[in-house]
Design brief:
The chain has 2 domains: 282 residues, 2-methylcitrate dehydratase PrpD; 140 residues, 2-methylcitrate dehydratase PrpD (60s Ribosomal Protein L30, Chain: A). The strands form 3 sheets. The chain has a 4-stranded mixed β-sheet. Helices cover 42% and strands 8% of the residues. The protein is globular, with a radius of gyration of 22 Å. The longest helix has 21 residues. It is of the alpha+beta class. Helix 2 packs parallel to helix 18, helix 7 runs antiparallel to helix 8 and helix 8 packs antiparallel against helix 9. Monomer. It comes from Candidatus Rhodoluna planktonica. Its EC number is 4.2.1.79.
Length: 507
């Protein structure tokens, strides 16, 4: 890896294209380096994970809405169109709208992979737009693998170096460029074309973090889907010869100057050198629980305390519960956010899955976490749960903040230390650095766990024959022909989608 210094330049400094971050990202994307076997296997794992969480969300309102929008857009000229999760494989719609619908389905439950560093991300959001394009234009399996590996590489490298949330910019601002780069790599486009697409994608995907603040709306699931859709449109425009604002990162009216740290600050962005394999996907981690990633280890810790100290589940016994954790966990999903909604029993699911006081409480009382039951209104409003929930607070611990940003795999930590003080004076204290499913956790995810997650979430939604068909196909991904890519979707059982009414809009 090579570190690239990135800063603001005045217009008269005339920064050459080859020295711009967008060009350097495009050069990585256009570098046709071989994909490692280990990376290939992880790409397959993440496609399985994406499919599992997508089918589990098929009748949720935002997904129904996005799907209905996509169905209003017939496949466009120039290709075969793309599939939508849940519908028969022969049903094709316009490529960018398929990416939109599938992106919302993947993101809705907050249940797919994550990477955390200076910025946080769900790099699996790169997958829906790439599969859609692959189906539309007829890419084979290895081309798709190369594109996904590239998308992960770019988003993770940007997240390692450039904080967006510190400036209240939503994390999908890294996703637009990464998806454009991944699609460009998959299609084998020239550096120049990918460069222009990256600039357009970044320019049009910068938005504020209000979508993840206070009462969190359904837009949270749509934001990454929009970034994927925009990336496809940016690639299309760039292929037609259209150009983008430049230099998009370094210009004196560019992203760094006005949306991020501004003039005088130098970012150091790591990118693979020419000929170097793209392996960043191996740094990302899956989710065992349907919740914000910073909650994963704390949910696991709550389950452990439930088994060892059942007395701590009764609010009548508890004086206080204090979670000592990182800056991000405290200020984004903890009490440091100062969002009263994080303690509101009537809050919506999107808000509750960004409330560590709520999630820790339910996991502590139930000794379990479920992607549906744990968020039900009757669960959130249970009297003893509300009483215990309001005794939970978070505090920032500098050591946990340091470990959160560490680049040493043995130090990296996304959990915290919990101190439960009982009314009789007993103090229960325990900590967990990483989730059980993390590569360094107690039960790291492998292919078996990804398949189990898919089977579990697809049960009752997808017929057994369709489950087996998809799993057999996706595990042959490196050898799939362009024609077989049409099967890289999952069809719901007959009648399952009939229970929902499609909303009406403009289209």
């Amino acid at each position: 890896m090579k570190l690239h210094e990135v800063r603001v330049y005045k217009s008269e400094e005339n920064l050459k294209r080859e020295d711009q971050l967008a060009w350097k990202i495009a050069a990585v994307a256009s570098d046709k380096v071989a994909v490692d076997d280990e990376v290939t296997e992880m790409v397959i794992n993440r496609i399985i994970e994406n499919a599992s969480v997508a089918v589990a969300s098929l009748i949720r309102k935002p997904v129904v809405s996005a799907r209905s929008q996509a169905l209003a857009h017939s496949k466009s000229a120039g290709g075969a169109g793309a599939n939508i999760f849940g519908l028969p494989a022969d049903k094709r719609v316009s490529v960018e709208w398929a990416a939109w619908a599938n992106g919302v389905a993947v993101r809705e439950l907050d249940y797919h992979d994550t990477f955390l560093a200076e910025e946080y991300s769900h790099p699996g959001d790169n997958i829906p737009p790439m599969i859609a394009v692959a189906q539309h234009v007829g890419c084979d399996g290895m081309s798709l693998i190369r594109g996904i590996a590239t998308g992960y590489e770019i988003q993770i490298d940007l997240a390692r170096a450039i904080s967006l949330h510190r400036h209240k910019i939503d994390h999908v601002a890294h996703l637009g460029p990464s998806a454009a780069a991944g699609i460009g790599a998959m299609l084998g486009l020239d550096t120049e074309v990918i460069y222009q697409a990256i600039g357009q994608a970044l320019h049009t995907t910068t938005a504020t973090r209000q979508s993840r603040k206070g009462e969190i709306s359904s837009w949270k699931a749509h934001a990454p889907a929009l970034a994927g859709k925009v990336a496809i449109e940016s690639i299309d425009r760039a292929m037609r010869g259209e150009t983008s604002p430049t230099p998009i990162y370094e210009g004196e009216d560019g992203v760094i100057a006005w949306l991020l740290s501004g003039p005088g600050v130098v970012y150091k962005v790591p990118l693979p050198e020419a000929g170097e394999a793209k392996r960043a996907i191996l740094l990302s981690y899956p989710k065992e629980h349907s919740a914000e990633y910073q909650a994963q280890a704390l949910i696991d810790l709550a389950r452990k305390i439930n088994a060892e100290h059942p007395e701590a589940t009764n609010p009548d016994n508890v004086e206080s519960i204090v979670i000592h954790t990182s800056h991000h966990t405290h200020f984004v999903i903890g009490s440091g956010a100062n969002d009263p909604q994080k303690y509101d029993p009537t809050a919506n699911r999107e808000t509750l899955d960004h409330s560590i006081p709520y999630m820790f409480t339910v996991a502590l009382q139930d000794g379990d976490w479920h992607h549906v039951r744990s968020y039900l209104p009757e669960r959130a409003q249970r009297v003893d749960t509300v009483a215990l929930w309001h005794k939970v607070t978070t505090v920032e611990d500098p050591e946990w903040s340091r470990r959160y940003l560490s680049t040493d795999p043995d130090e990296m930590a996304f959990g915290g230390r919990v101190v439960i003080t009982l009314k009789n004076g007993t103090v229960i204290e325990d900590e967990l650095a990483v989730a059980d499913a993390h590569i360094h956790g107690a039960r790291p995810f492998g292919r078996e766990q990804y398949i189990h997650k898919f089977r579990t979430l697809a049960e009752g939604i997808v017929d057994e024959q369709e489950i087996e068909r998809f799993l057999e196909l996706v595990q042959r991904l490196p050898e799939l022909s362009a024609n077989e890519m049409a099967g890289l979707t999952v069809t719901a059982r007959a009648g399952y989608l009939d229970s929902v009414v499609e909303p009406k809009g403009l289209f």
